[in-house]
Amino acid sequence: MYPCLLGYGEASVSQAKDPLTVTQGNPYWPWLEFYVGEEFQTTVERGQAMIEELAQRENPSAGRLERLVKTFNDTVALEIAFWDNALQLHPTG
């Protein structure tokens, strides 16, 4: 879930700041507003802090750290595949 949390946190802010983003009549604007809102952005910050704290507290061995990085990278790849698939089904341009 960590890549999803980070992805929504970053992508929503980027999209909301984009001057080409249409807000009036955009059925997705309320959805985007939620993700750029204080509540969700605070959740992102808390999630990041929790992961950092857990990593420091655990002080993983090199082998464990390698497995954690692989798991993170694998979940990022799944998140990318999810969005790529959605864009292929509904191309924007």
Overall description:
By secondary structure, the protein is mainly alpha-helical. 78% of the residues lie in helices and 0% in strands. It is built from four helices and no strands. The chain has helices at residues 2-17, 29-36, 38-58, 62-89. Helix 1 crosses helix 2 and helix 1 (2-17) runs antiparallel to helix 3. The longest helix has 28 residues, at 62-89. The mean pLDDT is 90.
Protein traits:
4 helices; about 90 residues; flat; mainly alpha
Alpha-carbon distance between the two ends: 29 Å
Q: Which class of secondary structure composition applies to the elements? A: mainly alpha
| Portion in helices | over 70%
What's the mean pLDDT score?
Answer: 90
Q: Which radius of gyration do the C-alpha atoms yield?
A: 16 Å
Strand content: under 5%
What secondary-structure arrangement, pairings included, does this model have?
Elements: H1 2-17, H2 29-36, H3 38-58, H4 62-89
What's this, in brief?
The protein has helices at residues 2-17, 29-36, 38-58, 62-89. The chain has 93 residues and is an all-alpha fold. The protein starts with a helix and ends with a helix.
